[in-house]
Amino acid sequence: MGADFGDYDNDGWLDLTVSNYQTETNTVYHNHDGTFFTDNTITSGIAEVTHGYLGWGIKLFDYDNDGYQDIFVANGHLMDNIAVLETHVTYPQRNLLFRNLGDGRFANVMSETDGLTLEKVSRGAAIGDYDNDGDLDILVTNCNQRPDLLQNAIGNRNNWIQIQVVGQKSNRSGIGAKIKVVTGTHVQYWEVQSGGSYLSFHDLRAHFGVGKAEQIDLLEIRWLNGHIDRGTHLPVNRKFLAVEGNNIVPIR
């Protein structure tokens, strides 16, 4: 139904996660050095939980700013009379949130989140920091219902940075630019994307949670044309503007 790329294990290669139909598990594919993918659904810990849901929008993002990408899934059945045909299945369903444990496994934390207690017939899911407070929020579209705006209330307990990229010779939105952030021994990677999930468009700003790190040792942007811009010893909890071929500067 939905699909998203992200580097959930911070090895520099974009992995793939896919939402699927009810009685099929959602899937986590691990990228091995850009040569092949392996199905890590079982070992990731998401198989048993997602088997009972029909998934649509799906997104890898760091909701708690700990430096590891988590997974959000928007759920809802396709048939409004499914409960008549299958008594154990419902049309509205709860959405799912999985926390990345940092070792290739994910933990289901939907019961720890107030915004995920209601059952809806959800479809799209778009991610972005709509209130500019340093953590990523979620906008969910629902079938024949009002959308839900899920405001993140815990992410900014950890430190973060955001980067707005502007291409010059590359496309202006910087789509496809690859960003590396280094804090101590922890390295993260992100590729600037626009659409994804399911019929959704995300915040174009690259967002990195960095846990308790007190500075960014290295911020590196590799543009589509091969040009590289770098910034070192940058402060955390700041937004930066990166114009291709220019110095990386704080926005505020």
Give an overview of the whole structure.
By secondary structure, the protein is mainly β. Helices cover 5% and strands 46% of the residues. It is built from 3 helices and 21 strands. It has helices spanning 41-44, 47-50, 82-85, and strands at residues 2-6, 15-19, 27-32, 36-39, 55-61, 70-75, 96-100, 106-108, 122-128, 137-142, 145-150, 159-166, 178-183, 186-191, 195-196, 200-201, 206-211, 215-222, 228-235, 238-243, 248-250. The strands form 6 sheets. Strands 1-2-3-4 form a 4-stranded antiparallel beta sheet. The longest helix has 4 residues, at 41-44. The chain is globular, with a radius of gyration of 18 Å. It holds the Pfam family FG-GAP_3. Residues 174-239 form the ASPIC/UnbV domain.
Give a short overview.
Pfam families: FG-GAP_3, UnbV_ASPIC. The chain is mainly beta and 252 residues long. Helices cover 5% and strands 46% of the residues.
